[in-house]
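A reminder from the course coordinator: this example appears on the midterm review sheet, so study it carefully.

Given structure:
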C-alpha cells in the first residue's frame, strides 16, 4: 500500500517526489519537463497554481524506461502572470499506448479523462460511487459533481422512477434516464423483480400488461 494514500475508505494513487523533475524554459514560451524514470511505471505529469488543486497535463503520459524522460509543450497551462507548479504521479499499470488505455477501468481512456478533467487513475473522480464512464453517458449526471446518496442523481436515487436505484441501473446496464430501457412496455424495475431482462425487448414478464 506504499503507493497509495487513503481518502475516507478509498485509496487513491499519491504523487511521487523522488524522480528529479525539472521544468526548463525553451525558446519563446515553450517549456521542457524532464525527469528520471523507472521501468515498470507509467508517469503522469500534473500542474497546479495553488498547490491544492491539481490537473493533469494533456498528453503528458509516458512509460518508464529507466532513462530520463522529456515532455515538451508550447505553453505552460494556466501560467500567464502567475506561479505554476508541477509534480509526477505514477501507476504500476503498463500499456503499449498508455494514452489510449483505461487504467481505472471506468470506460474512459486516460487521454479522454484528462481532457474531461476526471482522474485517469481513479474510477470515481467525484467519489459518489458512480463511475466516471457511466456518468458521462447520461446528461443528468456529472462525474465532476458529487451527488448526495439519496438525491435524484445520487447512488440511491431513482431518477426515472422505474423502481430501481441509479446504482442498480449502473450494475445491470439499464438507462437511468429511461423508465423502460428496452421499450417493451414494462418498467425496468418490474422486469428485474420477476427475472426478465430489462435490456432485451423480446424478454418480458409473462403476466399481461394492465
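Designed residues:
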Amino acid at each position: 500500500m506504499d503507493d497509495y494514500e487513503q481518502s475516507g475508505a478509498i485509496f487513491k494513487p499519491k504523487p511521487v517526489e523522488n524522480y528529479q523533475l525539472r521544468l526548463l524554459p525553451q525558446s519563446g514560451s515553450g517549456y521542457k519537463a524532464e525527469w528520471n524514470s523507472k521501468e515498470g511505471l507509467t508517469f503522469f505529469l500534473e500542474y497546479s497554481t495553488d498547490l491544492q488543486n491539481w490537473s493533469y497535463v494533456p498528453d503528458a503520459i509516458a512509460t518508464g524506461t529507466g532513462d530520463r524522460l522529456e515532455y515538451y509543450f508550447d505553453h505552460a497551462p494556466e501560467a500567464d502572470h502567475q506561479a505554476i507548479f508541477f509534480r509526477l504521479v505514477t501507476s504500476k499499470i503498463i500499456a503499449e499506448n498508455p494514452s489510449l488505455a483505461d487504467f481505472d477501468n471506468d470506460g474512459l481512456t486516460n487521454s479522454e479523462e484528462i481532457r474531461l478533467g476526471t482522474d485517469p487513475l481513479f474510477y470515481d473522480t467525484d467519489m459518489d460511487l458512480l463511475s466516471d464512464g457511466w456518468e458521462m453517458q447520461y446528461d443528468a449526471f456529472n462525474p465532476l459533481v458529487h451527488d448526495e446518496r439519496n438525491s435524484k442523481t445520487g447512488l440511491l436515487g431513482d431518477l426515472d422512477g422505474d423502481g430501481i436505484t441509479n446504482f442498480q441501473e449502473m450494475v445491470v446496464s439499464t438507462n437511468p434516464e429511461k423508465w423502460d430501457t428496452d421499450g417493451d412496455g414494462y418498467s425496468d424495475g418490474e422486469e428485474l423483480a420477476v427475472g426478465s431482462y430489462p435490456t432485451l425487448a423480446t424478454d418480458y414478464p409473462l403476466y399481461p400488461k394492465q
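Strands lie at 4-7, 10-13, 15-16, 22-25, 31-36, 42-48, 55-63, 68-73, 85-91. The two ends are 56 Å apart (CA to CA).
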